[in-house]
Write a structure and sequence with these properties.
Largest sheet: none
Helix content: over 70%
Shape: rod-shaped
Radius of gyration: 65 Å
Number of strands: 0
Number of helices: 6
């Protein structure tokens, strides 16, 4: 049983904690301040109505006092008139009634003074409450303005934080693109250098050039020119080119040293 009570108490504590947390999220301090201000205004209105009620009662007593005082003054005149007329009995009756009226006036005067004191107290309380309400209103508006500014600043900071995260992602993307671009440029430069050095050749141009073959090609071209020049000289001289020159396929520099060139034979 004790264990069950402990569990129930713990569950109740957790529930209250979660409920308070949910209420904190839903609560807007500005709405709470406005509600408190409205409650104070309602209280101030009640105090003012109380002052008005007391003042009304005081005024009613004052009117009754004035009426009774007028009646007392009239009885006083009647007693004087009756005494002047020799009617002492009427004068005595008038004075007796005047005494009763005066007693009522005295009672009302006590009530009047009590109501007047109560009215003064309520008026002072109303003034103090009015001052507090005015001060609370100013403070309320200040707090609301401060809260609104803080809320706006928080939202702006959240927006900037989100922008900063997005800009960070953009910066990483730009960095990756720049890295890939530099890598591609380096690769292109390396391929250009290899092609220029002959280490690589165009896939449509056949195998890379051979230095010895190039030298042989240059020598063959030189021999062809020499052979063609000798033939043209022989034709101009009316003869024909030596057969050894026409049949030879080797370069001119490879001819034996004792064999004369065609132009020398002529």
């Amino acid at each position: 049983m004790a264990a069950l009570m402990g569990v129930m108490k713990r569950v109740s504590t957790i529930f209250r904690a979660k409920a308070n947390k949910a209420l904190d999220k839903l609560e807007d301090p500005r709405e709470t301040l406005d509600y408190s201000y409205e409650r104070q205004l309602e209280l101030l209105q009640k105090v003012r109505r109380g002052v008005a009620d007391v003042a009304t009662s005081r005024k009613r007593v004052e009117l009754q006092m004035n009426q009774l005082q007028q009646s007392s003054d009239r009885l006083d005149r009647q007693a004087r008139d009756a005494l002047a007329a020799g009617r002492e009995d009427l004068a005595r009756e008038a004075l007796s009634r005047k005494a009763g009226v005066q007693s009522q006036v005295n009672d009302l005067r006590g009530q009047y003074e009590s109501l007047q004191g109560e009215e003064e107290k309520l008026t002072a309380a109303s003034q103090r409450l009015q001052a507090k309400v005015d001060a609370f209103r100013v403070r309320k508006e200040t707090i609301k303005a401060t809260y609104t500014a803080a809320e706006a600043t928080t939202k702006i900071n959240e927006v900037f934080t989100g922008i900063s995260e997005e800009m960070s992602d953009v910066g990483l993307a730009i960095q990756r693109a720049e890295d890939k671009t530099e890598q591609m440029r380096a690769r292109a430069g390396a391929i250009d250098e290899l092609m220029a050095s002959g280490a690589l050749s165009d896939s449509l141009g056949g195998p890379p050039p051979d230095d010895i073959q190039a030298e042989l090609d240059r020598m063959g071209a030189s021999y062809s020119v020499d052979s063609e020049l000798a033939r043209m000289k022989a034709e101009l001289a009316g003869g024909s080119a030596p057969k050894e020159l026409a049949a030879s396929t080797g370069p001119a520099d490879a001819r034996p040293a004792d064999q004369p060139r065609p132009e020398e034979a002529q």
